[in-house]
């Protein structure tokens, strides 16, 4: 049984379409991350699932039942807001019990649930405090606690870590993953941070312009991006997109020209224009004997991260390229480097941005 | 380095002393009538207009005794009338204006912007333009010579200024809180009472204080609607000390005037901080 099913979900504000028909099925207990650039509609989609935005078209089902017209509170959903949205005038305890009191749950039961959730999140000592007496991380926990006490079928997270500093963000990320493992509820998590997406998700849904570009496990998305947008969005530094032209054809094998370097591949049928070769910086190698030679790169800027060396530069035809090298490499600006890569890790995108499956010939 | 110090504003101590003296002088000129009123209330009747001094030559509280008991109804009774009307106006304004403001900021209803514009329009309307139609209406209701015309409208959110003030404040309350409450299953009423109102104490206090002061100080509306001296407010009572045909009791008038500003003064001192907070957070100007 699916936990949550979106069928042709649409959202328009007047004549402006924001979401153009999204289809997605989410399994019970799955951790799904919506990721995309700002304005891609990921938050709108989440708010429609929550019941905070009316759904313009399509159908939303939770545990098999149609939810389009059901009020937010009756959907069995809890949401953690980006701003935490803790009630400033209520104690932590009251913040967590407010929803249960609204539902007229017996006092004893409320107390039991609040204390249990507080224990899970280790905020028992904070129950009498007001939100303004808490640190960012503690507020975050209370916001999650407020969601947990309602024992929802589905948790929604709207960029919950964006207000935390870098260190706390990593820590909380780990805790959310642990929480998911512990309580096993379905979780939908919205972020624009691809690292959060990669680390937390069972499945990533990449959104752009109100459409799903690709949905798949983090490694599927990383290894076989469906198109140039997904390839560019996931991975840091960003994938290199290098213009290539078709140089010649011999049977099934096609020779591509990359700034004067010839690459023989298989799998391109017509004689397409505007092809582009996608290579992740971390898949590039310098001065190695293995892999396919991709020509020479002139380094213009080098970043030493300790564990990695990131080299910025350009190819012979001045196309910019970035290479991430393992370890500490002594590369100087102006130096010429021989690039190689495993063609199996490279991608070819057609003029429309779609990925073309190619093999090396 | 010389001994002359120059402060952060760059002005010399001499210049600053001069500025302070000027400000004090102007303040004194502004305050003189008030101080004169207070001091004259302790002077015997013949001394009031014969000297401009603020210190009474003979100190007497006789004017207070005469003022309190000199009319056919005790002035205390009028104080009570004023208090009842002012308190009812405060309650009415707080309840009705906060609800109207909540509707305008948070609820979706047909013609919302039209009604909002109309409400703002009533702020521009001078009170005197609606006086006669309003009087006729209350006359038909049989409400003239009762406190109803002074009190009932306050429960119907007629004071657009307070609505506007609260709208400004409510807009500053993050919508996320409403949405979190919606996720928690709260309806509009529960959100209003449990989330919005508790977070609005500064603006509620501001509205309450101004509501009280303006109703307390109001002379015109009670003059129009109240006829019997037992129903008079303190402000109306003050007028009865001045008589165009017989002799006016100036001492009693000034003594009772002093008493009348006392509640306002105390209120202002007590709520000063909340008032400033309310005004600062709403960007209010009047």
Automatic annotation (TrEMBL), chain A:
* Gene Ontology cellular component list: ATP-binding cassette (ABC) transporter complex, substrate-binding subunit-containing; maltose transport complex
Q: Which residues form the ABC transporter domain?
A: 4-234
Q: How does it sit in the membrane?
A: Peripheral membrane protein
Q: Which UniProt keywords apply?
A: ATP-binding, Nucleotide-binding, Transport
Keyword Transport in annotation: yes
A single Pfam family it belongs to is TOBE_2
Q: At the top level of its lineage, which domain of life is listed?
A: Bacteria
Task: Name the predominant localization.
Answer: membrane
Q: Which GO terms describe its molecular function?
A: ABC-type maltose transporter activity; ATP binding; ATP hydrolysis activity
PANTHER family per the UniProt record, alphabetical: MALTODEXTRIN IMPORT ATP-BINDING PROTEIN MSMX, MALTOSE_MALTODEXTRIN IMPORT ATP-BINDING PROTEIN MALK
- Protein name stated in the entry: Carbohydrate ABC transporter ATP-binding protein (CUT1 family)
Q: Which organism is it from?
A: Shinella granuli
Give the classification, highest ranks: Bacteria, Pseudomonadati, Pseudomonadota, Alphaproteobacteria, Hyphomicrobiales
UniProtKB/TrEMBL annotation, chain B:
One Gene Ontology cellular component term attached to this UniProt record is: plasma membrane
Q: Where is the ABC transmembrane type-1 domain?
A: 79-271
Q: Which Gene3D superfamilies does the record cross-reference, listed alphabetically?
A: MetI-like
Keywords annotated in UniProt: Cell membrane, Membrane, Transmembrane, Transmembrane helix, Transport
Q: Give the GO terms filed under biological process for this record.
A: transmembrane transport
Q: Which family does it belong to?
A: Belongs to the binding-protein-dependent transport system permease family.
Q: Which organism is it from?
A: Shinella granuli
Q: Which Pfam families match?
A: BPD_transp_1 (PF00528)
Q: Where in the cell is it found?
A: Cell membrane
Q: Which domain of life is it from?
A: Bacteria
Q: Quote the protein name from its UniProt record.
A: Carbohydrate ABC transporter membrane protein 2 (CUT1 family)
Query: Which residues are listed as membrane-spanning?
Result: 17-38, 75-102, 114-135, 147-170, 191-216, 250-276
Question: Membrane topology for this entry?
Answer: Multi-pass membrane protein
Query: Nuclease among the record's keywords?
Result: no
Q: Which InterPro entries match?
A: MetI-like (IPR000515), MetI-like_sf (IPR035906)
